[in-house]
Input
Amino acid sequence: MPRADFDRHLRSLQDDLLVLGSMVEKAIAKSLDALKRRDLEASRLVVQEDDAIDQQRFQLEESCIELIATQQPMARDLRTLITILHVAVELERMGDYAEGIGRISLMMGDEPPLKPLIDIPRMAEKATDLLRRSLDALINRDTIAAIGVCKGDDEVDALYDQVYRELLTYMIQDPKTIQRATYLLWVSHDLERIADRATNIAERVIYLVTGKMTEINVSRY
Amino acid sequence: MVAMERLDRSERAAGHSGPCIVADGLNAWYGHVQALRNISMSILAKRVTAVIGPSGCGKSTFIRCLNRMHEVARGTRVSGKVLLDGEDIYAAGVDPVRVRRRVGMVFQKPNPFPTMTVFDNVAAGLKLNGLRAPGGLGERVERALRQAALWDEVKDKLKQGGAALSGGQQQRLCIARALAVEPEVLLMDEPCSALDPIATARIEDLIRELADRYTIVIVTHNMQQAARVSDMTGFFLMAHDRAGELIEYGETQQVFTNPKDEQTEAYITGRFG
Output
């Protein structure tokens, strides 16, 4: 089989991408868990661990560049490498949002939570689900599943709307809550962006399979 | 610069350019062996068309049919049509020598006439064709050498033997010789396969420059070269009986990033061939 070595490299790159995906998924879960439990030590750890996510992304990027330089990939091989490059960046940015949630939690410090967190964890759950589904679509080269991810983003946008309106009500009723409400608004915005980036990954899946670059679902934010 | 060049090329490929050569149901044989089957392909005027495919797929045979060079070998035969500006070059009464003047060719190995000077090598085509150059032979030779990006390197060596030039210069000398008779089409059969990377890069630049004036068809084994220099790409493949067939033909950018046919995909990604 010609190019067996190149194929092995491509497979291993895809595995490394999945490792990055799982690191990001864990970071999102940990950041939310720390926020809910008001565990500042755990939030600090999320911030620290983002370095490992950045490193994994750089390593992936370097491997892609090396393969482009040494193997002269064409057609599907080229699209695969370009897709991995883009998806690695998307995942790394999702990791930054998890880190951002960790930092917000640290800024909140010992202040009592404004309200019990209900919709924000739901947003996190849905955004993580979209992340997982986008990577499944990538592995399976499944454009239908990719389109499904883009549609799923609407649900996260709707939850963001809801959280925004609720927090606004708090702020109007009692301006003393503005600071704490703003922190939660930032958290929900980070989660909304994570979902958006999952749709970016889904769009890359469609490019990988069809060679066409399209924006499937424009987020409202 | 690179991005601009890329854009120019995709615009060029997408732009409206009429066909210069149209192969219509073209078949070619060596004795009883069919080398090409039913090739229909419109080659656009003032564009670079690359012909790629594995060894033995009929690429060279195909371009040799475009200026009636195929029939030079014994026992060969062609059927179907090749229209040059609408005129069938295989129609009865067409003079193959006239066709070859309009459709020039450059070969794999640089083949300057070894006993002739640089000047005479370029003038040879004009003399053989009995062409009169209005401004004199010297002007015509200089123009051809300039077009082939060789003038500055040989202007003081016009009386020296063509064989004394480097491989890359010899190939540009052959290009100048082909251009001197002012053809409409330039066929290039692996023009860089005997050259080093620097000489190859010079020929590739030259091909892009010449595309403003000439219709160029290049056969190459080097897919990166096809991707770099051409506007359109045709992929040929051997069928079970070894006859070459045109599998896919489209804009170069599309063929190399998103080919329509699985066989093209397998070939250009190096999975076979």
Summary: The first strand of chain B starts at residue 19 and ends at 30. The first helix of chain B runs from residue 2 to 14. Chain B has one domain: 2-113+184-268. The domain at 2-113+184-268 of chain B is CATH 3.40.50.300 (Rossmann fold).
